[in-house]
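Milestone M4 deliverable, item 7.
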Amino acid sequence: MIKTLSKPLSKLVKTAGSVGGFTLVSRILGVVRDAMIALLLGVSPASDAFFVAFRIPNLLRKFFSDGMLTLSFVPVFTAYLTQGGRDRAFAMARSCFLLLSVTGVATVVVGMAFAPLVVRMVAPGFAPDSYTFSLTVMLTRIMMPYIVCVSLMAVAMGVLNSLGHFAAPAAAPIVLNLVILFGAYTLSGVMGSPALAIAMGVVLGGMAQLALQVPFLLQQGFGFFKKAELLHPGTLEAGKRMLPSLVGAAGFQINVFVATVIASTLSSGSISYLYYAERLVQFPMALFAVSVSTVLLPELSRKTGSNDSLGASEAFARALGAVFFITIPAMVGLAALGEPVVSLLFQQGAFDLSCVRETALTLFCFCLGLWAFSGTRLLVTLFHGFGDVATPLLAGIAAIGFNLVGGCFLGSIWGHWGLALSISAAAAINFFILLARASAYLDVLLIKNIALLACRSLFVSAIMYFPVSYGASLVTVELTKAEVLARVAGSVILGIVVYVGTFILIWGAGFQLLRDMNKRG
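Output delivered:
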């Protein structure tokens, strides 16, 4: 029995469950959105152009909306909140709003003016006189204003999360996806190009998700039009932490961005295969790891602020144990069901069977690193909760450096799925560097307990793989969408039954953990 992980999970994980509910809806809509993009663009020069242009604002969205920028904002805001009250904390937040508004608008103006140079940097494989290059430049200019929206959204998210309100920030991606879907459906005919319509939907969606936060900030007593200091001391402190926070926390996103740059030099469609596969692997990662880490950071900041290091360590250990318990079988199941899932979601219109197979291969390589993507996300949160930004920064730099070399090498051998394999290997390196340094904040017994639960989960997941893989083999090309859905759903249910049942039979701790995750009070 793993004592540390068998204790009742705190309100932290229960709150993460509600955040995860919103995230689940968001990810489902995200898959619907990507299915519509696959239907309209398929794997083509137009899809490559859109995904390259979208990588820039989407990278910033991942930095911000997944809570990565808030790693620098939340600890500072929480300190002002606990030591000086809401008025001082809100003054600091208003300063952040003002500074990000000014710098965001300046960035948009410069980005639109120098869009051709930006595209040459992020897609060196696109010929300057090609249709793909010209379309990418146009799409980049259209989506640039999204940067302002997403940066302001980050501050709103940090304020609300620090005050214990998680629903509105978690629901924001739902609004974004709905607006993008609406734009793709209604504007394609007006704008003459599906890619342009989707890009416009991205900008409108950014405005809508930011507007969603305003009523809840006002409800908390936040005043937007009160006097704001441009360079507030708290803003400067958060700014000092921001770059290390982004590099340390966003290693996965930066590595995907690097892979996109390399993929632009490969065969046409490589960028699109990477995008579709990465979107699918993001589903379990965002649903579990990001949801838990979003709630975990304010909790760690409060506990470390009150010198409760033991409570912070135990909260982290329970959260990471729960995430591994769910993420590892999700990784194995997604790897086994890769081709049927890709076929179910994307095979239509311009997305043919060859696209399905290439995307599934890339997805399998991403799945190999899912455990490391999720574990790293929580470990980074632990270090930032204790005010240590240097360790995640150094680990992130090491992982990015490895991926830069490994991506060039493996990409030249295996193409787009070699790039995905390099990203997974880089994530594992990042994870083990962080875990080795985590002993400064975690008791050795806590680390052993987490490792033991992860090994047990991996062992049972390996058993689960065979029946799920057999279920995947029953999905054939002549089946209808409804039949594919039924067989994929049946395989998922079979996998859950085998995983949970085997865990209960071999180790009672698995059943105990499930009880703890759903226990109230």
